[in-house]
Amino acid sequence: MERDAANGKHSVGGGSGVGSSLRPPRIFCLTVLSIVFWALIFYFISSMQGNTASLLLKTAAFSLPSFRFGRYIYMYDLPPRFNADLASRCRGFSVTDDICKLMANDGFGGQLPPGESLPEKGAYDTDQYMLELIYHARMRRYECLTADPSTAAAVYVPFYAGFDVSLNLWKSNLSDRDALSRDMADWLVRRPEWRAMWGHDHFLVAGRATWDFIRGEDGGWGNALMTYPAIRNTTVLTIEASPWQGNDFAAPFASHFHPSSDADVVRWQDRMRRLERRSLWGFAGGPRPGNTTVRAQIIEQCGKSSSCSMFGAKTYHSSPDQIMGLLESAEFCVEPCGDSFTRNCIPVFFHPISAYTQYTWHLPRDYRSYSVFIPQDDVAKRNVSIEEELRKIPPTKVAQMREEVIRLIPRVMYREPMAKGLVFKDAFDVAVAAVIDRVAKRRRAAAEGREYKDSFDGYLSWKYDLLEPGQKDIGPHEFDPYM
């Protein structure tokens, strides 16, 4: 999403109302980069030497406990108006695009044929806004699903909040816009499962950005779902979290690759290992109004460089194979604030909100271990050359970043829901484990009769999300100038 941190959070998520209600005006870059988000997974693996299988089996990297105790999830069987009925109205999500076809295969979309830059199998035409369907499908097949809420470590609410927003976003009457989300909150608080911990053990997935669910009483963008006290008690996964909201956490949006076995990943890694990276850096995105933005400078600098590859489609749905081919040839991929985190080359970020304060469950605190950070003001004010900064990085450091990203690869992808016997744990596994851990801390505090607060709204909220295990106090942070 296009964000100007200096202007406050309400510069995010605004829109003119032109185009699809499913997609805000900044959609081009979100979409183009979501098409290639998964390729980073394979590029870094291809850049490393050694036994690929050993990377998949590296326990310290991403494995979760195999035992089931404490991992049970209870899933509500919601009235269909909260999910299935919303999905059935998919033709109303957009006046220009066929969103219904993107819901095939449990939200993965249609299967893509093999191409020069696509795997032989496991590639789908996945839309980033299908996260609610994807999580619901996985939870139906979750190995520790329980019908007894008293034994559950957490409670899942399969409400398709993002679909609700897509259908009602442009209604001028706020009561109409909020009707279903208010109904959802009222339905929950009447349930005995809810009253057991007043919702502190509940979680839901909202397949849009947090900004779409925190509208104030005075009107504005989105609905008010996440402002209701009942929902404030829960844990909410969104595709883009707010640094200033206490109960939302970003989950990686779905890429186009969904492996069904460890072997699928290994085969693609071997293929990627043989590719030649012809460009130092690359950019897949389009311009925005004004010529003094980071994005404008990226386009200008890339256009003048023989070491940069650039793709800027004018259509929403571009060829995944075409974009993949371009970015597979780049060593680094630049990600201006507002573009979705890609997985096809070493990411270069210009603001902490792009990834470092977003994927706090899925990425390490040491951002220098897997990415490059160049302050956006330095670029926008023409004080720095992106290419010169990248050339300063020693080859040994580049190799170290690649190795770290290899370690993180499974944490930012979603496997096939029906797949069994896989060793690696994906983004779903990581998110569910983090939810369970968060609920366990709340439950433990309640059992000991002490107050436990883990949701902090306001300017300093993001600092709490970046605390290391065992650390309780916040203080000055290197990201302070940018937040």
Describe the overall structure.
The protein is an alpha/beta fold and 483 residues long. Helices cover 33% and strands 10% of the residues. The chain contains 18 helices and eleven strands. The chain has helices at 27-36, 39-47, 52-56, 59-62, 84-88, 131-140, 161-168, 174-189, 192-195, 229-232, 262-273, 294-304, 320-328, 376-380, 386-391, 395-408, 427-447, 461-465; strands at residues 73-75, 145-146, 154-157, 202-209, 235-240, 248-250, 279-284, 308-311, 330-335, 346-349, 372-373. A six-stranded parallel β-sheet has the order 2-1-3-4-5-6. The protein has a five-stranded parallel β-sheet with strand order 8-7-9-10-11, with helices on both faces. The model is unreliable at 1-69 (pLDDT under 50).
